[in-house]
Specification:
The complex is a heterodimer of chains A (332) and B (264). Chain A is of the alpha/beta class and 332 residues long. Chain A contains eight helices and 16 strands. In chain A, a hairpin with a 4-residue loop joins β6 and β7 (136-143). Chain B is 25% helix and 30% strand. The longest helix of chain B has 17 residues, at 37-53. Chain B has a nine-stranded mixed beta sheet, sandwiched between helices. A two-stranded antiparallel sheet of chain B has the order 2-5. Classes of the chains: A alpha/beta (332), B alpha/beta (264). β8 of chain A pairs antiparallel with β14 of chain B.
Chain lengths: 332, 264
């Protein structure tokens, strides 16, 4: 395989016919930077059609080519048709890299078509760097529970496939550059779709579980003793007009639901104030809070990594400090 | 009778792994190896399915000899058979090479109707093994599966619930079908003493690169792995923030609330 024969970097545009997923826009902006460094054309792969206003957003991220795919088999997302689609497209157009949002659907089909091609697939990079010397992308990601960073490359095979979690990068419209559109028809026999969807029941909207846009977040980490200790953190959040979130281990212990997990594998938050109680500061979590305006850390371990990310820290017992905050706020 | 495969991994307990501050490398000494926690949920789903519809559960893992310990845990928790794929030639495998070896070894064990995997491992955490194993086995795929609703042995279909970003989907797939399992409804059981004792001395089937027929040496271990890890480094952290130290919790909080006066 001659790597030089493989050109252009692709972003898969995930959408529901009305709206494009934010992660796809975020990827367009970030991969734009890689393409500026490598000289590749930033290419959006769109299956079926999206409204003009959504297309505008993609063009404004500096997309230079669109491969617009139509055909049978794509009425609803299914792994069988999408794996085939990307296998066929990659063999025909030979892209250097393919980026897919790390949604449940993206994480279903991207590793699968990478396996079929075959080529290398990485997941959850938090930083992407183009290496001029090798022509490879460095996918940099937290490893071993966030205790170290690992650089992953695909040095021989092409395309380099990566799934990236929503919220990892920012959508920054930089203006349209003029865009070529390639129409492609790839039919997948609907009879070959092996998974049928019988029903879908949307989760009831629970405002307390919607923490992505909260102005204040009180985050409890693995230092929490258990569910019994939660009411005081809820009370503090209430006094501050905010919401309670948690780190991944707190979910793993069954103390709080997954929708409240902040960090790489959960929600990325951007509050005005973020208070971490008993949070160790593993990178996987911290990457989800770095855009907070103000970060406060409370931890009994003076060496906890979270103190290196905070504006203000208090070394002490999380429950005691929380109670003290409640008392003083209530007395105002 | 359902023939069920459950793919598991032994992992270091990453919560206990420390980093050498001088070299930035991992200190794995004294860190216990455990059955990947989410694999225990996958096994529970597999065993419950076998119990309800009739069938056998084979657990398979690739790893060093000591990974047999994780398999014994699976046998104690209800697996019927355990298979260890162990060979130095398998080392440094990424998900592509690992899925290849597991598929080729499984050919020796029969045709599987249902395959269960954990959602991701504690250490590598790529979450890619499920999809790539499904591809290797030519299986349909139900990821983020939270509950098996029905297995229809006549039609060879399985119906299950999935936990998606915005709700619960009910999907039906044909055999062979691979699931990645959510922990919601499949809390691992605590093995009974008798089963646990039996698992200590149970037979574990072993395969090496030499005993899996037709294994392509170019597709295993390091040569078969397109992704490489050229380097690692400790996470870059900033300077420590301002540590408030006023002598008591009450005074610390007074100071903090003062500093935050503009935002609260």
């Amino acid at each position: 395989m001659n790597k030089k024969d493989y050109r252009d970097m692709w972003v898969y545009i995930e959408h529901d016919g009305e709206k494009v997923q934010n992660v796809s826009l975020e990827l367009c902006s970030e991969v734009r930077k890689l393409c500026d460094a490598s000289g590749d054309a930033l290419t959006a792969v769109i299956v079926n059609y999206i409204p003009a206003c959504e297309l505008e957003k993609i063009l404004n991220a500096g997309v230079e080519k669109i491969i617009n795919v139509t055909g049978t088999g794509y009425e609803y997302f299914n792994v069988d048709a999408y794996t085939n689609l990307f296998t066929v497209l990659c063999r025909k157009y030979k892209p250097s890299a393919v980026f897919v949002g790390g949604t449940i659907a993206g994480r279903d089909f991207a590793p699968r078509f990478a396996c079929r091609l075959p080529t290398g697939c990485t997941s959850d990079a938090t930083e992407l760097v183009y290496d001029e010397k090798t022509g490879d992308i460095e996918f940099i990601e937290p490893a071993v529970g966030g205790k170290m960073m690992a650089v992953i490359t695909v040095p021989v095979m092409r395309p380099q496939v990566g799934t990236i979690r929503p919220g990892t990068f920012k959508y920054q419209p930089t203006g349209s550059r003029g865009c070529a559109v390639i129409e492609e028809r790839i039919d997948f026999n609907p009879a070959d779709i092996r998974t049928e969807i019988l029903s879908f029941k949307a989760d009831e909207f629970d405002e307390s579980l919607n923490i992505a846009d909260a102005d204040v977040i009180v985050c409890v980490g693995n230092g929490i003793k258990g569910a019994d200790a939660l009411p005081r953190y809820r009370r503090l959040a209430e006094l501050l007009g905010g919401k309670v979130g948690c780190t991944r281990p707190v979910f793993d212990r069954g103390v709080l639901p997954f929708k409240l997990v902040i960090g790489q594998s959960g929600v990325v938050v951007k509050p005005k104030l973020y208070i971490a109680f008993g949070v160790s500061g593993a990178v996987n979590h911290v990457t989800g809070v770095t855009d907070s305006d103000r970060i406060v850390a409370v931890n009994k371990d003076p060496n906890a990594a979270i103190f290196n990310y905070c504006d203000y820290g208090i070394v002490g017992d999380m429950d005691e400090i929380c109670e003290q905050m409640i008392a003083q706020l209530e007395n105002r | 009778m359902l023939n069920i495969l459950c793919c598991v991994k032994q992992v270091p307990d990453v919560n206990l792994v420390k980093i050498d501050p001088e070299t930035g490398s991992l200190i794995r000494q004294g860190v216990p190896s455990i059955l990947n926690p989410l694999d225990a949920n996958a096994l529970e789903a597999a065993v419950q399915t076998a119990e309800k519809y009739g069938g056998t559960v084979t657990c398979i893992t690739m790893g060093p000899d000591m990974a047999a310990e994780a398999l014994r845990e699976c046998l104690a928790a209800g697996a019927d058979r355990a298979v260890l794929l162990s060979d130095r030639a398998f080392a440094n495998a990424d998900t592509l090479a690992t899925s290849y070896v597991i598929r080729e070894a499984a050919r020796q064990l029969g045709e599987f109707d249902l395959i269960f995997c954990g959602k991701e491992s504690l250490d590598g955490a790529t979450g890619q093994m499920g999809s790539q194993l499904a591809e290797r086995f030519g299986a349909s795929q139900i990821s983020s599966m939270s509950l098996i609703l029905e297995v229809d042995e006549e039609k060879k279909t399985v119906t299950a619930e999935r936990e998606l970003e915005k709700g619960v989907e009910t999907a039906r797939s044909t055999y062979p079908c691979l699931f990645t399992v959510e922990k919601t409804n499949y809390r691992p059981r605590i093995p009974g003493l008798k089963r646990w004792k039996a698992s200590r001395t149970a037979e574990i089937t072993k395969y090496s690169s030499k005993t899996i027929p037709g294994l392509d040496p170019e597709q295993i271990g390091d040569p078969g792995s397109p992704t490489k890890v050229p380097r690692t480094y400790p996470p870059v952290t900033g300077e420590s923030g301002f540590i408030i130290s006023e002598g008591s919790a009450q005074k610390d909080v007074e100071k903090l609330l003062g500093l935050l006066a503009d935002v609260i």
